[in-house]
Amino acid sequence: xxxxxxxxxxxxxxxxxxxxxxxxxxxxxxxxxxxxxxxxxxxxxxxxxxxxxxxxxxxxxx
Length: 62
Description:
Blueprint: H1 6-9, E1 25-27, E2 34-38, H2 48-58
Antiparallel strand pairs: 1-2
C-alpha cells in the first residue's frame, strides 16, 4: 500500500450548510425536530443529535 493514506479511503463529504441567525429553522429530515440551519437551505438537514448519530454511523473505521 505504498503512497496510500487514510484520506484515500475516507471520501465522505463533510460540508455543512451555514448556521441560521434565528427562526425559521429547517426541520431534521430524520426526526422532524428543528435544526440549526435556515429553513431556506436546500438539501438534507439534520438536528444536532441526528447529525452526530449519522457521523458515527458513517465514520471510517481503521
